[in-house]
């Protein structure tokens, strides 16, 4: 039996206790988003800029919009005035643009670096072996209008639980390696199929869509 969107949110929220839930509302209608909002959730995740802007314009203004997917440099300007957290920074070029557009809007934009730990080729993200040198890049240290809050990653889409768990362990280990020095507080990992494992492995923020909207 299918449960309502709000019942799904309440059930997941009870399971995950203090972990932050970002409801991934991509492809969902405004009516469905309103149901999420009326249930009390204010954190929404979208992965396409066009859709994000349209929904931002039509939905209540106290929503925190998370840009969770790959972000093209030339689209940053459309979301820079309002985006709450950019989850998927995977290049210096993108970060530079984010800093520029944040400055134009007189604000500081919070972001996460996206790390690539999954086995799939197609996924975006920084290979862990390149991450330390990126963090030490002098240019990044001078950006005044962006603030790194931590990292985000996705596990391989597989039923093999130990593969998924090991990838989350790798993300957690990268996170804790830098957490103190960098003052990080967000480790964004876990989606509909694997958020329970992600939380066991130290996730602070999960991004869940299909399980809430009953699409599998
Ligand atoms: C779609 C998406 C999610 C949510 O996936 P579900 O399996 O629907 O929960 C999480 N993170 C990113 C980056 C996504 O694109």
Describe the structure.
This protein is of the alpha/beta class and 216 residues long. It is 43% helix and 19% strand. Strands 7-6-5-4-3-2-1-8 form an eight-stranded parallel sheet. It has helices spanning 5-16, 30-38, 49-58, 76-79, 92-104, 128-135, 138-142, 161-182, 195-200, 210-213; strands spanning 20-24, 43-46, 64-67, 85-89, 109-115, 146-153, 186-188, 205-208. Strand 6, helix 8 (161-182) and strand 7 (186-188) form a beta-alpha-beta unit. The site of pyridoxal-5'-phosphate has 13 residues, from strand 8 and helix 10.
What order do the helices and strands come in, and which of them pair?
Layout: H1 5-16, E1 20-24, H2 30-38, E2 43-46, H3 49-58, E3 64-67, H4 76-79, E4 85-89, H5 92-104, E5 109-115, H6 128-135, H7 138-142, E6 146-153, H8 161-182, E7 186-188, H9 195-200, E8 205-208, H10 210-213
Parallel strand pairs: 1-2, 1-8, 2-3, 3-4, 4-5, 5-6, 6-7
Bound molecules: pyridoxal-5'-phosphate.
Residues 24, 26, 47, 68-69, 191-193, 207-211 line the site of pyridoxal-5'-phosphate.
Short description:
With 216 residues, the protein is of the alpha/beta class. Helix content is 43%, strand content 19%. It binds pyridoxal-5'-phosphate.
């Amino acid at each position: 039996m299918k449960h309502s969107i709000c019942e799904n949110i309440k059930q997941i929220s009870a399971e995950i206790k203090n972990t932050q839930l970002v409801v991934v509302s991509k492809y969902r209608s405004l009516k469905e988003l309103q149901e999420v909002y009326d249930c009390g959730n204010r954190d929404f995740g979208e992965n396409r800029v066009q859709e994000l802007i349209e929904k931002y314009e039509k939905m209540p203004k106290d929503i925190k919009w998370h840009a969770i997917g790959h972000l093209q440099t030339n689209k940053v300007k459309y979301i820079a005035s309002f985006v709450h957290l950019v989850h998927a920074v995977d290049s210096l070029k993108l970060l530079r643009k984010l800093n520029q557009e944040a400055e134009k809007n007189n604000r500081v934009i919070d972001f996460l670096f996206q790390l690539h730990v999954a086995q799939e080729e197609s996924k975006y993200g920084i290979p862990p072996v390149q991450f330390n040198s990126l963090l030490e890049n002098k240019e990044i240290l001078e950006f005044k209008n962006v603030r790194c809050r931590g990292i985000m990653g996705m596990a391989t889409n597989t039923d093999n639980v130990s593969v998924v768990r090991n990838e989350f362990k790798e993300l957690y280990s990268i996170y804790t390696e830098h957490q103190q020095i960098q003052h990080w507080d967000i480790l964004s990992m876990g989606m509909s199929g694997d958020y329970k494992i992600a939380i066991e492995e130290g996730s602070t923020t999960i991004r869940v869509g299909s399980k809430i909207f009953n699409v599998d």
